[in-house]
Design a protein that fits this description.
about 170 residues, alpha+beta, Aminopeptidase, seven-stranded mixed beta sheet, about 30% strand, globular
């Protein structure tokens, strides 16, 4: 495996690969459910259709010509207008532990600061201690917790926020 290279912006096939990676990573072996991939495909395509490099960022990591990681800053989302949402942050296990995930995260946060978003937020689920530790170490705080399902996860959902202004 070569050291992953980070690329900014969309290229053909990136959206589909991001959906595939998340589906393979989060769906238990032998589970034929496709709810996660179906919902993600709709959301990734919607994001791609309105992608604006002034407010949005897609960063992908590539190793040996294969997309192995991603993170998105969605600055044009409508859930909380004017704020940035981090989305679809994943690095395949074989590439973890080499600083690539930290670099993706740092670059995404730098973009948010450069664009002067007042707040960055994200949704995650309980049970992912490594990612939660990374977010809280960066200053994110849990501001909402509730039971529910999204992408077919039936876990406790968490919304984390990081104020950047003030």
């Amino acid at each position: 495996m070569t050291a992953p290279q980070i690329v900014a912006g969309f290229r053909p096939g990136y959206g589909e690969r991001i959906v595939q990676m998340h589906g393979e990573y989060y769906t238990p072996p032998g589970d034929a459910r496709v709810a996660l991939e179906s919902a993600m495909a709709r959301e990734v395509n919607e994001f791609a259709d309105r992608y604006d490099p002034e407010t949005d960022l897609l960063l992908t990591a590539h190793s040996d010509g294969v997309l192995v990681g991603s993170i998105v800053v969605d600055g044009g989302q409508t859930e909380r207008p004017g704020e940035a949402r981090l989305r679809w942050f994943l690095l395949l296990p074989k590439c973890q532990g080499h600083g690539v995930g930290r670099d993706l995260f740092r670059r995404a946060m730098d973009f948010c600061r450069e664009r002067r978003f007042p707040t960055v937020y994200l949704w995650t689920v309980e049970g992912l201690p490594r990612s939660l530790q990374m977010y809280t170490s960066a200053g994110f705080r849990i501001v909402e917790r509730f039971s529910g399902s999204h992408y077919s996860f039936g876990d406790v959902r968490l919304r984390l926020e990081l104020p950047l202004a003030g």
